[in-house]
Amino acid sequence: MNARRNAWLVNGALALCAALVLFPLFWMLSVSFMQPGEADNLPPPMLPLHPTLDNYRELFAHAGMGRYFANSLIISTAITLLSLVCNTLAGYAFAKLRFAGREKLFGTLIGALVIPAQVAMLPLFLLLKYVGLINTYGAVILPAMASVFGIFLVRQYARGLPGELLEAARVDGAGELRIFVQIVLPLLKPILVTLAVFTFLTAWNDFMWPLIALTGQQHYTLPVGLASLSREHVQDSGLMMAGAVVTVIPVLVLFLALQRYYLRGLLLGSVKG
Amino acid sequence: MCLGGTVRNAMNRASSAWLFLTPALLVLGVFFLLPVLAGLGLSLTDYDLYALADIRNLRFVGLANYWELLHRPLFWDALGHTLYFVIVGVPLSMLASLGTALLLNSQAAKLKPLFRTALFAPVVTTVVAVAVIWRYLFNPQSGVVNFVLTHLGIGPIDWLGDPHWAMPMIILFAVWKNFGYNMIILLAGLHAIPADLYEAARIDGASKWRQFRHITLPALAPILLMVGILTVSGYFQLFAEPYVITEGGPLQSTVSVLYLMYNEGFKWWNMGTASAVAFLLFLVMFAATALLWRFGGGRGEAA
After folding, report:
1. Using one digit for the tens of pLDDT, what is the confidence trace for A65-77?
2. Closest residue in A to B259 (Cα–Cα)
3. ipTM of the complex as predicted
4. Is residue B77 part of a domain?
């Protein structure tokens, strides 16, 4: 009897929490299909009376959302691919190749994690300005091509690879690069998927640096474009919610599809090695 | 000859190791390490709009930027708002993470994967996009939140216009957006606690609360400390939320340290002052996390 009451309590509490947590996302979706001004009615409507795609049409036809979407996609994809190369090479080297000063160098990198990224932002802006890269895709892509977190993640995983396998290949006279491409990479595949999902989501959601580095509308990413739109169209809740949907849905779908990989990265990244 | 081969092999490996490291180290060096060091130098200059136009206008001013900031009320206000956000926001987030992790870990819980995904969903969403939602939900006139509160006999609260309520609203946002992250880590920590510990406690007749107090909490302590420190340093970097939801207002009540840095640097082009703000934030963050580490570490040893 007591156990049954307990089960009700636990599941009731979980359902309540889930409903509260999901409500803002549900509301966003619902309002994005409403007529102009409909969401301002009292009591606040939960579902659109006459669902319409007008907000989405307006967004892509007049608010430049298509452009922002393409920019976000290009930048996030480029960052994901390039940083995957840099981080995998470095992470593997830290895990499996012996060289003088390895632990010290790795320790320094981990130590650098205490420095918040914003400390570098002002000089980085000036540096990129002097070489003419401000307000180009490169301004956002280049600094994100490697990350300590990514290197750390690959290293943690690569340390578990069987050393005998690599040793055998070396005895057979294979070069280090060939060993990496033909033996190591296929074994690292799970962690590469994890890192790719993580990097893509981070790049897609990033706000402060793109806001600083992309000064012209033609290069805005979705978050930057949305923030700027929301200052112009404060009254237009339907339009803004459609913009939020367009921004959030791709990452939500990606997460739902590859949840297992994402959560593994989260746990691996938080457990100290 | 065999020995010579091994040595050559090892040297080969070392040189290819550096080859493998070069791309990443180059990126981190040029786009992070170098700017950090340059930032320190920048904070000692009066780099402003004139210097941006012509570098010959640049002057070395020593610690004047720091001195000036420490005498400016807005800097202390920004630091105060940020500390408020951290001191109230982090414990609330941790409580939400721990509470939901305990619920999900309960044997009575059904549909665990579904609930876990639902509770985690806000973490992967885009801050700017969900912050925009918040602005409408907490709209004093037409927002859903005030509608519900008035029916419960509370409010209406002027979330966006009253300086006392803007920061609590942003804290609620941050808790909602972030608690799922730590929830997953704590859940993994709960899974790792051996079940026979609880079994033994039950046989001894220990209540649920005593089990939590004497088994769960001590076992989770190291994870709680680590997660707490990470959350603290994350919350010190408050920027996008006030930028989108309140634009720093009302009456600058939600201007955070980073918001101040952004305005100084990229609105007024006082890059020297802005760099000093960034380093002061770094200093405060470092002190806060070091203090937590010390405090938490000492307690961990005693337990």
Report:
1. 999 999 999 999 9
2. A208
3. 0.94
4. yes
